[in-house]
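Supplementary Data S3. Sequence and structure tokens for construct A.
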Amino acid sequence: MSRFPISIVISIIISSIIFIPNYIVFVEGQSAKPVTNVSNLSLSEDIVNVSLENKTVQYFEDAQGYLVYPVSSNDSQGKLPAVVMIHEWWGLNQNIKDMANLLAKQGFVVLAADLYHGKVADSPQLAMELVQMARNNQNSSIANLQAAVKHLTLASNVDSTKIASLGWCFGGGQSLQLALNSQEHPLAATILYYGTPLVTDKESLAKIKWPVLGIFGDNDEAIPISEVNQFGTSLNQSGIKNEIDIYKGVGHAFANPSGDNYAPKETEDAWQKTLSFLKKYVVET
């Protein structure tokens, strides 16, 4: 895998040392805050009090993930849809676990994967090192995520035909990489928030046989709007159902509350689009 151009890396750091997650995307600022501010996202009354069960699971070699799912007071609960959630550049920290909990309350079994082998960054410098490690060992990262999917397929409470992936920034790019390498176990949907690097090659994207949701900002210095448009065009030309949402006036990591690019209104809208997309293509199919 080629390294991210140093000019863009510097640009991202300057414009955000705030940023969020993945790509070398650096946004979370100087502290590891959540990708999205859970307290700011709308919660309907029917899910606020949903009971959850969570545990740490060994799903791949030395990788332990965070598994969480809703529990019912009776035994009538059937198999549930599931999501492999992929962390931003900070790693599998409490922020990602909070997002997993939030999604689980919507009726999903969520496995938050760990591509850093137990390490969590507390500084941009360490986050960069961990990102480079994961990207320089992309085959291992893909195998890690494939193992997360397999773990969910074997779970007694999961419908193995309804497994999606979701990630932000670095995790968004890995969500796309998983989609390009899931021929043995097709996914139900792929979701990426300003995922980097963004694959735009039509022949490569043609490997995907399920719907894709892409969330982007038109002021993203890490992902030119021309690339986003080409991404959508290539998906269309390959006959892949997709929804590409480009938010005006916001930059990279706009869904990260710890940075100057944070846009709460757009973040809320993007989250609702994410839930609607999952409901349409994963839950109801």
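Construct B, processed identically:
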Amino acid sequence: MDEYLLSVLNESNRVISKLQILSNYFEDDVVYKIYLRTQVIHKLFETNTELNASKLELFHLQFTQSVIDLLKRIKKNNEKNVSLVYNEIQLNNDLVGKMNESVHTEKNFNLDKQRQTLKINTSLRRLYQVLSEDSTDFPFSKNISSFSARYAKDFFYDISPVLFDELVIYTNEEVYTNSYAIIERKLLGKLCKYDFKTDFYCGLKAGNVIVEVYKFLNTDSYYLFLPSRNLFLLFDPAKISTMDLETTVSKKSAIMQELRYKTDRLESSILGLKTFIPLDIRNLLQESYNKISDISFLDNISSADVQANILKTMLNTDMM
């Protein structure tokens, strides 16, 4: 084997190795078929030393190298897109981590609702006794306002300031008042009737002002508690009938769920982005494969107009 042929074959092996790496990267049928066909052509010159080695050299120069340059360009563009996805995933994970540090779980909220209900029922029973006896004793349980302070941001529902004002309006004739609390007369009577058995229903907020809504057990009667003023008034549920009160998951938890779902979708898309080849490029690659698979291809390989022109056009395609 003469030195020229040996040099051409060695260079051919290096070119084919590059194509093999790209074939493994893209895992695309057309690219793999081109890689296999290129091996066949190489083997043909390796086993038939009488063939003109310059044709193999020209084949790689006009065809294989153009394919490699094209696939490298696509690979670089894909890796840039994958990098952007990884950055978005990292930002999502960081945001979820920060939110997770401050969010109160639904389980804790439900447990604390029960504790708060007990505090309210006990406090109202004591308030009734204080008012009945005209006592100056403090009637409220310890930290009765901490529940709203802790959970309002995540679990209470937003209402308008106008609606809030409607909910807490009253006249002096309608309420009992002492130095600790204000309670509607009709509400106190209803509490006595139902033995102070109520349950937390929902929380409402308008900006920084907050009310807790409670429901009498086994009835359709409600009342509200305004912690900032220790105010208790009957509550008409029709005023919030258009609100969706079914969801108990906090706002932050809902956002976290959406971010996790989005992250899962982004992660599942990475492999597709990494190996993506535009359809028009795949069609051109398929066309080129068909050309080099033609039995008469090598007869025309010395022509300067061999399919390299197609591949060079592909290299000039804007894939950004």
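The chain has ten helices and seven strands. The chain has a mean pLDDT of 88.
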